[in-house]
Design goal:
This protein is α/β, with parallel strands linked by helices and 472 residues long. The chain folds into 3 domains: 4-144, Response regulator (Rossmann fold), CATH 3.40.50; 154-325, P-loop containing nucleotide triphosphate hydrolases (Rossmann fold), CATH 3.40.50; 331-468, Helicase, Ruva Protein, domain 3, CATH 1.10.8.60. It has helices at 25-36, 48-57, 74-84, 99-107, 120-151, 161-173, 190-199, 218-226, 243-246, 262-274, 300-306, 311-317, 334-349, 358-366, 372-386, 414-421, 428-442, 447-454, 458-468; strands at residues 16-21, 40-45, 62-66, 89-94, 112-115, 152-153, 156-157, 180-184, 208-212, 227-228, 240-241, 251-255, 276-277, 286-287, 291-296, 320-324, 355-356, 391-392. The strands form 6 sheets. The chain has a 5-stranded parallel β-sheet, with helices on both faces. Helix 13 packs across helix 15. The longest helix is centred in the N-terminal third of the chain and has 32 residues, at 120-151. The two termini are 16 Å apart. Bound molecules: adenosine-5'-triphosphate. Residues 155-158, 184, 186-192, 255, 297, 373-374, 377 line the site of adenosine-5'-triphosphate. InterPro entries: AAA+_ATPase, AAA_lid_NorR, CheY-like_superfamily, Homeodomain-like_sf, HTH_Fis, P-loop_NTPase, Sig_transdc_resp-reg_receiver, Sigma_54_int.
């Protein structure tokens, strides 16, 4: 993964925006001037009312407010800031003898209080400390945004050329109302992609309703989809709203659409053509405004050819096709996903680790991941949970992945052995060339990652790439 540090602006150079509220305006000016000398951008409000207006109208990082003011007092300013600018910090100023109100302010979320007459260095230090937290929040937001901008779309991460193309399609089609068919093996991210599409459409404030067709017996599928009236069939004791109605205004995600029985396919086609549904047992049709995103791990076109899926429905669903390749066909995504899951899961589980050992990294990069991204995520989660020494190593790997590891002492086992042994008898330079090329392919040409994988410096790698004229 690229090092985010170089791409995130140095936030310490961005001035902290400070609002000083005090009905003693000359005092407020003096406070502002002393803060401007430590790279704060200050504005002054000469009364509580003026301060309140400026809190509503602009964004502030730190608000320094006097507590005792005639019109709107400091506590009211504090409450307003906490509501309207939740990331901003408030420092309250109070005269001697009013410690009780300062304590009340602290209970209401003030960052700290300072007593008048003010000690300027104390004030500066308080503002610096209060803004440090804010800088951290900003930096994290910036990091998330830059990671997302460079490698992803609404949580769909990928750096391979295939994923770049898919993310481009997602950006273009999400805002439209087009029906989308997502095809891919289990665990390739079909539901995640469907959610990303919904999140980037004008429907995002309306429901995203998933329905897995293979999880339902045929007998209740239609009632789940379209709903039913009381007495529509034996056991229909009351009226029930179906998923189409639930999703009205939003997006319906139909997973495993290839499992839909032929009868239901006919009804589905009508719904898509007429944009109306009829609850089972009802006479009236209901207008619906639902965007459909369907997914399948089967080859629907083949099913059409074999006569097990209706051709007309296939074309209705396949207005935009998104084919998610299995992870083994885009190994360049593995390093990025590893970092992403490690970070995400560490946070969720509440366990910090140093990272992956070199051998574990190799194993994860060379495994063929039949369960795709879900399996990679689950593997990293189990490694994290089982870890005891802060470094995720092969001993934490599930049994089917661990034997594939070529040990650093040169001995090797399992599949990896056949590849390595096949090179015995070849000149060492050829072996080196072979391994560097393999590593480059695995990381999709990411030099930093390749160098780490091979345990050599980036400069050395660069030299070898030139020397052997390797593909990047
Ligand atoms: N490109 C990706 N970036 C980040 N996380 C991903 C990506 N693709 C999948 N995941 C994660 O992998 C897991 C499986 O993804 P998801 O459930 O979307 O797959 P699926 O194809 O719908 O699976 P199934 O066919 O079994 O229903 C989820 O935890 C998801 O968040």
């Amino acid at each position: 993964m690229a090092d985010g540090k170089n791409d995130v602006p140095d936030l310490s150079s961005i001035p902290v925006r400070v609002l000083v509220v005090d009905d003693d305006e000359s005092h407020a000016q003096a406070v502002a001037e002393s803060l401007e000398r430590i790279n704060c951008e200050c504005r002054v409000a000469g009364s509580g009312a003026a301060g309140s207006k400026m809190v509503s109208g602009e964004s502030w990082d730190v608000v320094v407010t006097d507590l005792q003011m005639d019109d709107v007092d400091g506590l009211e300013i504090l409450t307003q800031v906490k509501e309207e600018l939740p990331d901003a910090e408030v420092i309250v100023l109070t005269g001697h003898g009013s410690i009780t109100s300062a304590v009340t302010a602290m209970q209401h979320g003030a960052y700290t209080y300072l007593t008048k007459p003010l000690d300027i260095s104390e004030l500066r230090s308080a503002v610096e400390k209060a803004s440090a937290r804010l800088r951290l929040i900003r930096r994290n937001a910036e990091l998330r945004r830059s990671l997302e901008e460079r490698f992803g779309f609404e949580g769909v991460i990928g750096n391979s050329s295939q994923m770049h193309r898919i993310i481009e399609i997602l950006k273009n089609v999400s805002p439209t109302d087009s029906t989308i068919l997502i095809q891919g093996e289990n665990g390739t991210g079909k539901e995640l992609v469907a959610k990303a599409i919904h999140q980037n459409s004008h429907r995002k404030s309306k429901p995203f309703v998933p329905l897995n067709i293979s999880a339902l017996p045929d007998s209740i599928l239609e009632s789940e989809l379209f709903g039913h009236e009381q007495g529509a069939f034996t056991g229909a004791s009351g009226r029930r709203i179906g998923k189409f109605e639930h999703a009205n205004g939003g997006t319906l995600f139909l997973d495993e659409v290839g499992e839909m029985p032929m009868d239901t396919q006919v009804k589905m086609l009508r719904v898509l053509e007429e944009r109306k549904i009829t609850r089972l047992g009802a006479n009236d049709e209901l207008d619906i405004n639902v965007r459909l995103v369907a997914a399948t791990n089967a080859n629907l076109k083949k099913m059409v050819d074999e006569g097990t899926f209706r051709e007309d429905l296939y074309y209705r669903l396949n207005v935009v096709a998104i084919d998610l390749p299995p992870l083994r066909e885009r190994p360049g995504d593995i390093p990025l996903l590893m970092e992403h899951f490690l970070k995400d899961l560490s946070k969720r589980i509440g366990k910090e680790v140093e990272g992956f050992s070199r051998t574990a990294r190799k194993a994860l990069l060379s495994y063929h991941w039949p369960g795709n991204i879900r399996q990679l995520r689950n593997t990293i989660e189990s490694m994290l949970v089982m870890d005891t020494d802060g470094l995720l190593d092969v001993d934490g790997l599930p049994a089917d992945i661990a034997p594939l590891v070529a040990h650093d002492d040169g001995s090797s086992e399992g599949d990896a052995a056949s590849g390595a042994d096949a090179l015995i008898g070849r000149p060492l330079s050829e072996v080196e060339k072979y391994y560097i090329q393999r590593a480059l392919d695995l990381t999709d040409g990411n030099r930093e990652e390749t160098a780490r994988l091979l345990g050599i410096g980036e400069r050395t790698l660069y030299r070898k790439i030139k020397e052997y004229d390797l593909r990047k």
